[in-house]
Write a structure and sequence with these properties.
Helices cover 45% and strands 18% of the residues. The protein is an alpha+beta fold. It starts with a strand and ends with a strand.
Length: 170
C-alpha cells in the first residue's frame, strides 16, 4: 500500500513523489518537503521537519492500520525514543518479546498492540513536558507494579473536594 505525506504550506508535486525509505518502512512517499542537493558528484537528500513527519507517519499507523507489522512496531518505538526495554516495561513484557515482535518471529499480542497504539497517540497529542512525565510513568511507575504485588495492600480512602483525591490509611 502506498501512503503519501506532504508538508503544509508548500506546493505539492504528486507527479514525482519521493519514496522515503530511511524511516525503515515500505510504501511511504513524500509529495513535498524534500530538498535534493549535489555535493562533489554525490546527491544528498534532506527532509524538512523530519520529527514532524515521523509523528504524522506514526499517527497514520496507529489510527489507520488493522495490524502493525514488525517494521511498524520498531518505527513507533524509535519515534517515541524508547529502547526495547523501555517499551517492554510499558507493555508489561520483556525486551526479548519486543525484539521478537520487531523481527517478525512472533506476533504482538492484541492487548500489547492496543496499548502501544494508545501510548503513541498520547505521545502525539502531549507537550514535551507531558511526554516526559508519561515516559516516566510508563517506564518507572508501571515497572514497579510487580514489586507492589508482593506487598500487603493498604486500605485507601477517597475524598471529594473540588476533585477526587486519595489518602492512604496508616
Amino acid at each position: 500500500m502506498r501512503e503519501n505525506f506532504y508538508l503544509h504550506g508548500e506546493s505539492v508535486d504528486s507527479s514525482d513523489p519521493y519514496e522515503y525509505r530511511s524511516c525503515g518502512l515500505d510504501g511511504i512517499f513524500l509529495l513535498n518537503g524534500v530538498e535534493t542537493e549535489e555535493h562533489d558528484g554525490e546527491e544528498s537528500v534532506s527532509i524538512k521537519n523530519i520529527d514532524g513527519l515521523h509523528v504524522a507517519i506514526g499517527k497514520h499507523l496507529v489510527l489507520n492500520r488493522k495490524g502493525l507489522t514488525p517494521k511498524e512496531i520498531k518505527f513507533l518505538r524509535k519515534t517515541m525514543e524508547m529502547t526495547q526495554q523501555d517499551l517492554a516495561k510499558g507493555l508489561g513484557n520483556d525486551a526479548q518479546s519486543v525484539a521478537r515482535w520487531e523481527k517478525g518471529e512472533f506476533a504482538i499480542p492484541a492487548p500489547a498492540e492496543k496499548l502501544l497504539r494508545a501510548m503513541f497517540y498520547a505521545a502525539y497529542i502531549l507537550t514535551k513536558e507531558d511526554l516526559e512525565a508519561l515516559k516516566t510513568l510508563i517506564v518507572e511507575r508501571l515497572g514497579q507494579l510487580d514489586d507492589l504485588d508482593q506487598i500487603e495492600p493498604l486500605p485507601v480512602q477517597f475524598m471529594l473536594g473540588d476533585h477526587w483525591t486519595e489518602r492512604q490509611v496508616a
